[in-house]
Specification:
By secondary structure, the protein is of the alpha+beta class. It is built from 8 helices and 12 strands. It has one domain (about 1-259): 2-Layer Sandwich (Ribosomal Protein S5, domain 2), CATH 3.30.230.
Length: about 260
Amino acid sequence: MDAFAPASVTAVFAPAASESGSRGASVALEDGVTVSVDAAAETTVAVDGEPAAFEPVSRVLDRLGVTASVDVRPEVPLGAGFGASGAATLATALAANERFDLGRSREQLLDDSHEAEVAAGTGLGDVFVQEAGGLVYNVGDGRQRVATDEPVEYASYGGLSTADALADEELMARVRTEGGAVLDALPSSPTPRGVIERSWPFARALDLPTERVVDDVARVEDAGGTATMAMLGETVVGVGAEGVLPNRTRISTAGARLL
């Protein structure tokens, strides 16, 4: 059984006090992750056919009470700010529910996926964006969604450890302060461009962008667009300019689904 979940890029976030979720603003991308789930005597996970440790995927299968072989086929880099672990986990939950006839609701599967991600330290809310599609934001009064399929360009140079970042108390304190200020000032009907424009100073305030990221953002801005760094990865995502960054996709209006 196959399922797909869109990748997601978080432009700005602020962890909730419980550390089990976050406020933030993110977009789902048409580029994403496909998984195949088959029955097996014990759980194994592979990425493009090669065995790999993938803790949130294994955890969600444990939560569902099944063992399976899972092949993860990403269209975006892993560990580079695209929420690929969340996409793989959510797609696995959808596929396993269908393959094993578990009868769990989409909301239950979403909760299972979120809790598996949090327990693994790989994300705080990516699956909610990937379940819905579009521009998803939460300024503190619940998740809201804007349906848009605006073109997006991106470049990725590698990953940053989400688990390490989330465990860095000093960094998370700055994220909470700086990200909270951006989200508090977000207009009631945000656009992708508006969110990205506001999130670049947030990234700079955290002292996270590398020289390559800074250069790419400047090139997008010179071409009339706006860009920022994905949270968390050495990845640039931009809108409003064409042919500046090497990869071009769109914001996905559809969420995770069976194939």
